[in-house]
Amino acid sequence: TVSIVLFTSDLRLHDNPVLCAALRDADRIVPLFVYDDGLRATGFAVPNRRAFLADCLEDLDSELRKRGGRLVVRGGDVVEQVRKLAKETEAVALHVAGGVSRYATRREERLRGALEGSGCRLVVHDAVITAVTPGELLPAGKDHYAVFTPYFRRWSAAGVRDVVAAPRKVRVADVSSDPVLPRAEITGVSPGLDTGGESTGRRLLRAWLSGGIAGYEDGQDDVAGDATSRLSPHLHFGTLSAAEVVHRALREGSSGARAFVRQLAWRDFHHQVLAARPQSAARDYRSHGDRWRTDKKETAAWLNGRTGYPFVDAAMRQLRHQGWMHNRGRLVVASFLTKTLYVDWRVGARHFLSLLVDGDVANNQMNWQWAAGTGTDTRPNRVLNPVIQGKRFDPDGSYVRRWVPELADVPKRYIHEPWKLPDKDRARLDYPDPIVELTEGRARFEQARGV
Ligand code: FAD
């Protein structure tokens, strides 16, 4: 007998309940990945994530080969490819991880329809992409938690599922496979993009658990120190399992580990919001009737890291260069766009998704809404001041100097406010004046929101 595993955002062998269930079901499996035309048509498959994905698939194939198997890759419509393979192999089951985006739930419905009456049953597995299944924890009388703190309390008390071991042997059905598109053939990739794949993810996790995690509580906002785990792309592609990361971090036991686990709960929190309100990927979760401004020049300055606010510009340039941005940077640039410039959060969310290697519908859209005050933030009208944030989280300006080389020689006391330099020094810099006065931006926003 044969069963099919459809890999989606769970590109791993360790702690993969989907794979383990398929192996229990049949003596041979089809470990399948489909380059899905439908997903490509949504514009989601951008160069940075395609490049990271190439690493993931190569590593998955190589790890499967070590166990006597291999990866089966196909292109086309995912449902059609599954239907064809199920027929060809007379598969008894198709196993897939449950997703929360509209795309994932629609795919699930289509798979169910396509397999109906075929003898191949569809099994959707929970708590594979998140540590806790979206919808499992509910406040009385409601269909999701809208506030993080009570969610986190329940989440911590509930605990996450047990970890399952990686299989030792994998037997694969005799079916053809297309090649993996090599990373080197993908153009338009950020030069400093991280390497993907489960082996890399596991190495990073080990290093993080025995090193950085202990200092996470104090260091998480030190933008220049890069003192966060940088595991987000691995969690996004599922080369690391969120449940396993939670267990191993809790075993480490420090206060840093507890602070880190809290961030993983934020990930689950946003997923359960999106699962309950899939329309909030595109629409305000909580509307204030905003009449957003459209200003092409200011928006272009923001996109290109030329706003004249060094901390904002450094973060925007880090995004372009690495396909990743520090969380503190994400908060500051998002507040700047949506509150100081009062430009629609969707403009920023779209730009982030075009570059972020960890770009994720749940985390990106819900964090953008949080920052814009249209989401779950209980203080929706707070505005972050990029000068104060810069002085606080990049006190000696190393982050700014790294990403905005025009400012490399500016003395520390002016690094977050280069417009205050003496005229002759200011004139020598090829760096713009601020595109907007912070106090004006704030006043405009507060007036619009009726604060
Ligand atoms: P760490 O600080 O080491 O945290 C560990 C893990 O916890 C992260 O890998 C991530 O999975 C999770 N996490 C941490 N903070 C958050 C958060 N606020 N919300 C949800 N999960 C969190 N994260 C994404 O994974 N994908 C996105 O597309 C994304 N877009 C964002 C957009 C905006 C405007 C903002 C403010 C935040 C966004 N985040 C997103 C959340 C956060 O910035 C990143 O997860 C984090 O910076 C990744 O770096 P790290 O792995 O070193 O994080």
TrEMBL record:
<dbReference type="InterPro" id="IPR036155">
    <property type="entry name" value="Crypto/Photolyase_N_sf"/>
</dbReference>
<dbReference type="InterPro" id="IPR014729">
    <property type="entry name" value="Rossmann-like_a/b/a_fold"/>
</dbReference>
<comment type="similarity">
    <text>Belongs to the DNA photolyase family.</text>
</comment>
<feature type="domain" description="Photolyase/cryptochrome alpha/beta">
    <location>
        <begin position="1"/>
        <end position="130"/>
    </location>
</feature>
<keyword id="KW-0274">FAD</keyword>
<dbReference type="Pfam" id="PF03441">
    <property type="entry name" value="FAD_binding_7"/>
</dbReference>
<keyword id="KW-0285">Flavoprotein</keyword>
<dbReference type="InterPro" id="IPR005101">
    <property type="entry name" value="Cryptochr/Photolyase_FAD-bd"/>
</dbReference>
<dbReference type="InterPro" id="IPR002081">
    <property type="entry name" value="Cryptochrome/DNA_photolyase_1"/>
</dbReference>
<keyword id="KW-0157">Chromophore</keyword>
<dbReference type="Pfam" id="PF00875">
    <property type="entry name" value="DNA_photolyase"/>
</dbReference>
<dbReference type="InterPro" id="IPR036134">
    <property type="entry name" value="Crypto/Photolyase_FAD-like_sf"/>
</dbReference>
<keyword id="KW-0456">Lyase</keyword>
<dbReference type="GO" id="GO:0003904">
    <property type="term" value="F:deoxyribodipyrimidine photo-lyase activity"/>
</dbReference>
<protein>
    <submittedName>
        <fullName>Cryptochrome/photolyase family protein</fullName>
        <ecNumber>4.1.99.3</ecNumber>
    </submittedName>
</protein>
<dbReference type="InterPro" id="IPR006050">
    <property type="entry name" value="DNA_photolyase_N"/>
</dbReference>
<dbReference type="InterPro" id="IPR018394">
    <property type="entry name" value="DNA_photolyase_1_CS_C"/>
</dbReference>
